[in-house]
Amino acid sequence: MNRAERPSRAGQPVGRVEPLRRPPRLGPGARVAVVAPSGPVPEDRLQAGLDTLRGWDLDPVAAPHVLDRHGEFDYLAGTDADRAADLQAAWCDPAVDAVICARGGYGVQRMVDLLDWTAMRAAGPKVFVGFSDITALHEAFATRLGLVTLHGPMAAGVDFLKNARAQEHLRSTLFAPETVRTLASEGTALVPGRARGVTLGGCLALLAAGLGTPHTRPSARGGLLCLEDVGEEPYRLDRYLTQLLRAGRLDGVSGLLLGSWAQCGPYEKVRALLADRLGGLGVPVAEQFGFGHCDGALTVPFGVTAELDADAGTLTLDEPALT
Predict the structure, then answer these.
(1) Helix (H, G, I), strand (E, B) or coil at 177
(2) Distance set, CA 122 to CA 20, 23, 146, 278 (Å)
(3) Which of 45, 224, 260, 296 is the most buried (most CB within 10 A)?
(4) Of 65, 151, 169, 293, which residue is the catalytic one?
């Protein structure tokens, strides 16, 4: 029995990752709210991001506290209550069609429990975009709202503002998702093979930090797990992966897609670590998939059924990310 077939820690299999409800795609004139659930947002970058969205014929609006700075902790974009209020108000506003995060950093875990998930569920499906620290919200939107979300560039991110590929892939996903149903990697198979499952994942450190917390799935069973990170030394990546393995979070996973590992040390060393920790799962593992903290980051929908071909380096969605 390989590790992917083990029973859960309680002795019974954990439920499989199921496909989620897809929100409607955007059209010309759609209103997009930009929120800051995590770190502080530089005003010049925010304005540049809003201009980019206007250039797509969208109607972007900045949340009231998007430029706030916490009075004591300068790594937070305002107070927990204000960051949560901005996100909830934007989501529950019937005039808003999509919510895009301004940037990552740190802070979601401090505010996610302040959200009224009943009210947000009643607001209906909308597009939600972000990555990095926003991983905690991807998990929450999946478990509390049952919605597909987009792991993609953020409105005030340098990687978004200065990279045409990142902009075009996000734009295509928002407006014409049927044109980007196949995502291609730039690497080779770390472990060869093909697998089917439902996409999920995000930043490795955030997934490890979310273990045992509310709004987080206990297992990736039946899923195609996407992992990436930035600025973490190999021993830290080892710790996060080992924690996920020991907690049973990777039990029954169908396959893995590995994105960028920027500023995590020489890639050869990171690659060897990933092979060591993930190779024993007995499932396909595809590397260098071009999502996360990297130039030209691809937008990956979470919550859709797809097929991973690690040998070909492709992820093919059964359906477009948005309806």
Answers:
(1) helix
(2) 16, 14, 12, 39
(3) 224
(4) 293
Distance of CA 86 to the CA centre of its chain: 20
Residue position matching structure tokens 């071009």: 290
Query: What pTM does this model have?
Result: 0.95
Q: What is the 3-state secondary structure (H, E, C) of 2-71?
A: CHHHCCCCCCCCCCCCCCCECCCCCCCCCEEEEECCCCCCCHHHHHHHHHHHHHCCCEEEECCCCCCCCC
Name the nearest CA neighbour of 304 among 96, 4, 23: 23
Q: Of 139, 215, 219, 228, which is the active-site residue?
A: 228
Per the annotation, the verdict on 228 as an active-site residue is yes
Strand partners, 150: 129, 301
3-state DSSP call for residue 294? Answer: coil
d(CA 279, CA 128): 32
Helix (H, G, I), strand (E, B) or coil at 261: strand
- In angstroms, the CA 216 to CA 107 distance is 16
Q: Where are the beta strands (DSSP E) in the chain?
A: 31-35, 59-62, 98-101, 127-130, 149-151, 182-184, 189-191, 194-203, 223-230, 255-262, 285-286, 300-302, 305-309, 314-317
* Angstrom distances, CA of residue 299 to CA of 65, 173, 318: 26, 7, 16
**Of 38, 65, 132, 219, which is the active-site residue?**
132
Active site residue 172: no
Q: Show Cβ contacts of residue 204 under 8 Å, excluding neighbours closer than 6 positions.
A: 227, 228, 229, 232, 237, 240, 241
Euclidean distance between CA atoms 188 and 286, whole angstroms: 7
> What is residue 195's DSSP assignment?
E
**Does residue 132 carry a catalytic annotation?**
yes
Rounded (10°) angle between helices 234-246 and 267-278: 10
Q: CA-to-CA distance for 78 and 37, rounded, in angstroms?
A: 9
Which helix H or strand E contains 282, and what residues bound it?
none
Residue range 78-126, pLDDT digits in tens: 999 999 999 999 999 999 999 999 999 999 999 999 999 999 999 989 9
